[in-house]
Amino acid sequence: VMEWAKNNITGDMVNSSSTLNFSSPLNGSFISTNNSLQIEAQINSLVPLKKIELYWNDNKIDELYSGFGNNYLYKFSYNPKDALSQNLLTLKITDNNNQGSQKSIIIFRN
After folding, report:
1. What is the DSSP string of the chain?
2. pTM greater than the 0.70 cutoff
């Protein structure tokens, strides 16, 4: 079932041992290309985290390795000068067992 989920579910969690929740921005938010986008997400995992990746429209804009433990408050500031009218922000994590999860939200440009 997990293999099927990894291949067929996008935009939500695949690994049930982890949760990812964006607290900023929220899904459907509007942004301005003149301002910095403050990204914040709470990550909780039953297994310690090994890697965190952040993508803006499928382009990696941040990557962190090791030392996160099981719970981590992820924060990142990004200036989206290349913002389209509709944008995809994706947070991906990998735990020490090489299991991955991801969460995606849509962000609109003013």
Report:
1. -HHHHHHH--SS---TTEEEEEEESPTT-EE-TTS-EEEEEEEEESS-EEEEEEEETTEEEEEEES---SEEEEEEEE--TT--SEEEEEEEEEETTS-EEEEEEEEEE-
2. yes
